[in-house]
Amino acid sequence: MLKRPSLSAVSLLFAATMLTSPFGLHAAESKQIARSSNLGIELFGVGGDDWCKADSQLTLTRTNDSPLVGTEEKLFPKIAKIFNTECPQMETAQVVVNDASGATTRDFRISKKAGWNIVEDAPAKTAQAETPSNTSQEPPAQPAPTQTQEAPQPPKKQEPTLAQKQAEPEQKTAPAPAPAPAPAVAREKYVSLSKDNLFWLAAHEAPELLEDNRVIDQLATLKSCDRFLSVRSNEFALRDWRQEVKPTVVKNANAASDLFEFSFNFRVKRNYDFETSMLDIGSFTPKTQEYRAKCGYHDTFRDNTFGGRVDVSFEGLPDSFNRKIYLPDELGRAAVDRLEATDNKVRITYRARLKGIGVSNDWGKRYELKAEFIDVKIHTGKQFDYLLVHHDADKFSAAREQHKIAREAAAEEQRKIEQERLAAQSAREEKLRRLQIEQENARAQELYESLAGDNAVPAKLAALYHDGNPAFNNPYDVAAKAISVGQKFPVRAFVRAGSRDSIGYRAEWPSRLYLTGADLEEGEWYFVSGMGDGQKIDNTLLSIITVDEATKCDDRLCMSEDDVIDYVRSQYPQWTGKEE
Amino acid sequence: MKQENSHTAAPAPKKTTKIALIAGGVGAVVLIAGYFVVQSQVTDSARTDIDNFLRNNNMDRYVQYRDIDASLFGQSVTLHNVRLDFGETQGTIEAINVSNYDVDERSGHLNSIDILLEGTDFPINPGRASFFQRRSAPPPYLIGVDAVRGDFGMEYEYDNVSGTLDADVNFSLPDLMEGEFNIGIGNLHLPPIDRLASRKFAKMSSVLRDASTADLKAISLSLTDLGLENKVAEYFSVKEGMALDAEAYRDHIVEVLEKNIEKTPPGTPFEEHLADIAKSATGSSGGTLSVSYEPEYPTTFEDMGAAAFGLMFGGLGALGNGFYQNSEILNDLYDRDVLKIEFDS
């Protein structure tokens, strides 16, 4: 748009104004598809609500300090899921990259078939050098790597940085369903799965660790420890050595590749099924591989920083990659012949892509890399030159897609089951809650009936009136128990005070009881608490209560029916009321 | 002559009378003296026998008495002011009278004996609680009974030829209760008294074995309340926290009982009769409860034991039918007047 020579002065002014606020511009004429403040990017579909087409126009606006500067194309495989959701019919897209000032820095074409990587017919190119109007713009932090660029020591990588992964951990590369391999992948150089490559990769994936001198030491001594050992005891020599090696280390780390190739030899258990013409040679998923740096003293840093160890764990092979190979007729015979000739030895050649990096903190920190398979070939024969089976990238992509669909279907089924379970549980809980309410209501009614009407127990009512505790003792047991245990003990009793004599108040009810320790009114009902004892008076065993607290009742029934209802409601607030 | 005769004739009857009086007096003195001498000898003999008995059975330390009185004509021995001391159990008995004591000299069987304990007084004290001390009824001291005071009597008659035994036990506890227990047994052949007194278990077990083949002719129990019911009622009123005196609490229980009977009416005439008795006995004090069982045909104790066992555990019988079987059996006994339960207020 800015290149049009026919723009009027007003249009140029408007365009310049809009360029100064790129986000506002795109918000006005485009539809926002994705945004990440961590990555400092916003992605828009050009054309407003009608942006979605088979060949769409996209605008990526980024901040100048975005970690994607120069490598913006790495974003799109990560957000393939968004494309699938927002615009499933989109097959290709032309992407224009704008910086914070609104200046176009790059443009390139991406394709769904290529896994939303850059397609060859529209190779990535830097825009700033070609656009005269962008000459004043700030160049990207580093030149955008191209697919053909030669990495010095370790091959270059193609994956997003760790920062991107941390910002968008849920975004995963969508598998390319098309059978044809993406050209960008096809031209990748695969490096061997060696400790050197892996350490470079780990450093590349976690560049912030390069700030730690010990990581620099580790990477610089992968080939040899000699220089390091000669300088490490001298602080200045060590500093000079680090300054010398650090640029190379950083450069190598930045240029590391994420594609591996490696082989393992196995002896398999062979079985050919004539009914299905399937040759069963087992499955081959490498175990987690562990690599250690040459200089062993890096293994454990005392302050618990990264040690000289990298673990690589591999994805499980998709379900469709089972152990059985369809080899009918002569193919099966030839395969079996060769397997027999080699005592069932096979060589598996794997090609894998680094998917991510993690950090383990147990027994000292270490890198944990994860890899997914791109290509697997299984050879047999004396020279391992007879190809038994070849799982190429298409197969893996299709299998992963199939596996993903199956997993999603299983997840959906599980979700339905879970919903049904939750619904059933909710119904049960509701039923249980109703039952609990009914039971509590029944208990409240039972409590009411035990306290009121014909079932009223005067001593219990008096005890409740006394301190809310319905318990009371049998005064006639007090004397015998005190003699039995040989000491006084706490008692609670309902009594009617009688006349006072030299011993105390002889109770009117119950008759064989004395009350001491408090002033009581003769003929009145009391609920008393205190210490109980027993003593023979006039050759009769009597209980004696030394009163600590006494609550006077107006009558034999200390609580009215209304008092009882209030008490029951205090115990069971949800009680709906007495039932007649 | 006449005068002389008359004179001489007159003093003759006087003299005879005098002689007779003198002789009678002497004879009376001799008889009285003899009675006292014999009485004294009988008493001494009885004292000696009792002392020997107590000593030989190592009971002289536990049983002591102040005086002994043996009656020559009444064929009775009375111990006065008896003191019993068995450690935790101590008490006194004003008099123990043993009479009608008849032991066949040749066979050694005890044919009859009457024992009367007058003025017993055994204090009851609350003891230490025991783990196994679980009672459905409260201990006496909890209902205000601090001693067993009263009279106890027992009459025993045994005929070894017919094998019949009649025993009667009665007691009177003032302010509490009086009662009488009678039992008549036939076809019972007891061993001699010396073997009965043996402590050897094997012989006791043989006695029990022999007794199991005896027949129960009749048994009866009569209890008259003299205040015990009110004491128990008062205790439960206090225990339940009802704050009612004994009379009012009994009325309350009668009300509860009537409600329960109304809810679950008696199923048989016997149950109805029992319910009436329960209401009458609970509602009034001072009545007499009588229970008697007189089988139409002699029933051995062995069969009685099996029947009693069945009755006791009938409720746990197969599928609960036992309860109804028991009810039917008891009702049948009641209908035929074999089992009588009466209450007289």
Set down the secondary structure blueprint.
The complex is a heterodimer of chains A (580) and B (345).
Chain A: H1 9-20, H2 22-29, E1 30-36, E2 41-46, E3 55-62, H3 75-78, H4 80-86, E4 92-98, E5 104-111, E6 117-118, E7 125-126, H5 162-167, H6 183-186, E8 191-192, H7 195-205, H8 213-220, H9 226-231, H10 235-254, E9 259-267, E10 271-273, E11 278-280, E12 289-292, E13 306-314, E14 324-326, H11 329-341, E15 345-360, E16 365-380, E17 386-391, H12 393-451, H13 458-467, H14 475-485, E18 489-496, E19 505-506, E20 513-516, E21 525-537, E22 540-553, H15 561-571
Parallel strand pairs in A: 3-4, 8-9, 13-16, 20-22
Antiparallel strand pairs in A: 1-2, 2-3, 4-5, 5-6, 5-7, 9-15, 10-11, 11-14, 12-13, 15-16, 16-17, 18-21, 19-20, 21-22
Helix pairs in contact in A: 7-10, 8-10, 12-15
Chain B: H1 2-9, H2 11-56, E1 63-71, E2 76-86, E3 89-103, E4 110-123, E5 147-159, E6 164-173, E7 177-186, H3 193-196, H4 201-212, E8 215-225, H5 228-239, H6 246-263, H7 269-283, E9 288-293, E10 299-300, H8 301-312, H9 321-335, E11 339-344
Antiparallel strand pairs in B: 1-2, 2-3, 3-4, 4-5, 5-6, 6-7, 7-8, 8-9, 8-10, 9-11
Helix pairs in contact in B: 5-6, 6-7
Give an overview of the whole structure.
The complex is a heterodimer of chains A (580) and B (345). With 580 residues, chain A is α+β, with helices and mostly antiparallel strands. Helices cover 33% and strands 26% of the residues of chain A. Chain A folds into four domains: 9-136, GMP Synthetase, Chain A, domain 3 (2-Layer Sandwich); 191-391, no CATH class; 392-456 and 562-580; 457-556, Beta Barrel (OB fold (Dihydrolipoamide Acetyltransferase, E2P)), CATH 2.40.50. Chain A has helices spanning 9-20, 22-29, 75-78, 80-86, 162-167, 183-186, 195-205, 213-220, 226-231, 235-254, 329-341, 393-451, 458-467, 475-485, 561-571, and strands at 30-36, 41-46, 55-62, 92-98, 104-111, 117-118, 125-126, 191-192, 259-267, 271-273, 278-280, 289-292, 306-314, 324-326, 345-360, 365-380, 386-391, 489-496, 505-506, 513-516, 525-537, 540-553. In chain A, strand 19 (505-506) and strand 20 (513-516) form a beta hairpin. In chain A, helix 8 crosses helix 10 and helix 12 packs antiparallel against helix 15. The longest helix of chain A is centred in the last third of the chain and has 59 residues, at 393-451. In chain B, strands 1, 2, 3, 4, 5, 6, 7, 8, 9, 10 and 11 form an eleven-stranded antiparallel beta sheet that branches. Chain B has nine helices and eleven strands. In chain B, helix 5 (228-239) crosses helix 6 (246-263) and helix 6 (246-263) packs antiparallel against helix 7. Chains A and B meet through helix 13 and helix 14 of A and helix 5 of B.
